[in-house]
């Protein structure tokens, strides 16, 4: 809890108080549901559900700071790809009530885009991610955490290389340079985007303060647009460059295997529709732009599962992968899978 | 957490709604399916449809208050109307047929009247990729209708009358005319070409995204917040997909797609008041604008009333028109006065 503001002003205090009350109500809800579920002798799901909520006792502030750590990663990736430089240093510093320190970005360079449309997409996303970092920093005020150390390197031991090697996109010991080509850039963006969408999706029910809930909803939708853009471009280019689809599929599989056995990821290759309640759709071949189950509900991941992916580790660890020194947050440990 | 309201006699006018609410509480547990379980289905059994066990008479109620639950019910029914519209549009475009009766009827505890769908036909897609996108989205929208209906249970509103007609008097044409994409009195047929289909999908997608963005923080029940967030994300992926395809085709081969998307955005924005709640797909000379965001990078949001302004094609406070000739079904049905 070292990042909690010591004296953050009456307004934030009020928000936190209100948040604490609502969280108590939610715990009460889960306890009730749990008890009744046990009576009904259908315990497993309710236990899982309850533990999800109760295990995540972070305040809104802590949760937003975690999400900001993810935003730093994405914003730096796009900023370097588009401009060759990272975010301004003023956008990386801790708030006066935070004891965190600024970590460095390793690697990162400008992409020489071949397809002018990909360049335009990258610039749009870069601008928007930078705005989101600024927004979250302003919202968090004195409690804002500094940027943690981030690995955007292009060496054989860099995070992207390790991720792409796990997906068999490069051979063991071979470097993957995320900034070397349009395709590498898109695959790297793909690796990050869907994960952050799932983080915001799962965060929706954990945020208490109404204003933060509005912000969370706006950020969820924004990230889903970005993710859809990247997936659509890969899918489209994949119609002629088949490896883009199979490589995206492989990346999805890596993400899905890092974060445990729950199915919460899907590649982009076409799939035959099955089990639709509209029979006429079944058997048709469809794209796979939306990572969702057959219920049409986009996947979500708790922070610990997101960290499995970004730490590139299926076990309970506190750092690694894209965050060599871990997050600047109160929740830093990945899930034990 | 005692919901004492459930135990006291209520005025007749509220009786039915309360009954519907109990069913809703039972079926709200459908949201737990997202987590792979059905414990709450048993836990919150409906008052008239299951045999309570000796030990659950304490009436477990998965909601902070009954008012919140009624509000959630209204919100989900409102969102279900939007899902009906989108699902019918995509399924008819893809298959030539609409939703089966089982997916448009009212719930047992609801008194809304089922409406018919006017217009719509199968699109002969030229670009196989567009066909694949349309199928994927159609399947998701059907799933959304099914999911929302399951969550609402007996309180489910019937499908209202829907106009997805491609003739000159249809709702799509009316919006296209307002946008000057076609001349006054001329038809805009969403089913005539890939391009028209994409523009018609664009007309609806962004509006529904703003509806979810604006509605999310009003939902009180935790499980429903999670479910709504999932549909919200999925719909945002759909909107991002449609905007990306329009931008790519508009940039490479059909510039009119860029300008027409901008005109449609302006028309939508003109219906919902003076606040800028809509954006086209073109950025500046070096950027796209796939994501319609504010200066903070947050997706734009509309109130329910503003959403209905756009879908009723009317800037005033009315209870029907445009894509919903008889209005949407449920307690949220009036557009905002602008």
Number of discrete helical segments of chain A: 9
| Radius of gyration of chain A, CA atoms, in whole angstroms | 20 Å
- Please state the structural category of chain A: mainly alpha
Average of per-residue pLDDT values of chain B: 85
Percent in strands of chain A = under 5%
- List segments of chain B where confidence is low: pLDDT < 50 over at least 5 consecutive residues: 1-63
Biggest chain-to-chain interface with counts: A-B, 93 and 93 residues
- Topology, number of strands of chain B: 2
H/E element sequence of chain B:
HHHEHEHHHHH
How much helical structure, as a percent, in the residues of chain B? 40-55%
Order of helices and strands of chain A: HHHEHEHHHHEEH
Strands of chain A, count = 4
The end-to-end distance of chain B, rounded to whole angstroms, is: 40 Å
Number of helices of chain B: 9
* Radius of gyration of chain B, in angstroms, nearest whole number: 21 Å
Return the domain count of chain B. 1
Overall form of chain B:
globular
Assembly type: heterodimer
- Percent of sequence in beta strands of chain B: under 5%
The backbone outline of chain A, from C-alpha atoms, is: globular
What order do the helices and strands come in, and which of them pair?
The complex is a heterodimer of chains A (about 325) and B (about 350).
Chain A: H1 10-39, H2 43-55, H3 60-83, E1 105-107, H4 116-140, E2 150-152, H5 159-166, H6 182-203, H7 210-238, H8 242-258, E3 271-272, E4 285-286, H9 303-310
Parallel strand pairs in A: 1-2
Antiparallel strand pairs in A: 3-4
Helix pairs in contact in A: 1-2, 3-4, 3-6, 4-7, 6-7, 6-8, 6-9, 7-8
Chain B: H1 12-27, H2 39-43, H3 66-95, E1 117-118, H4 128-152, E2 162-163, H5 171-178, H6 194-215, H7 222-252, H8 256-271, H9 304-312
Helix pairs in contact in B: 3-4, 3-6, 4-7, 6-7, 6-8, 6-9, 7-8
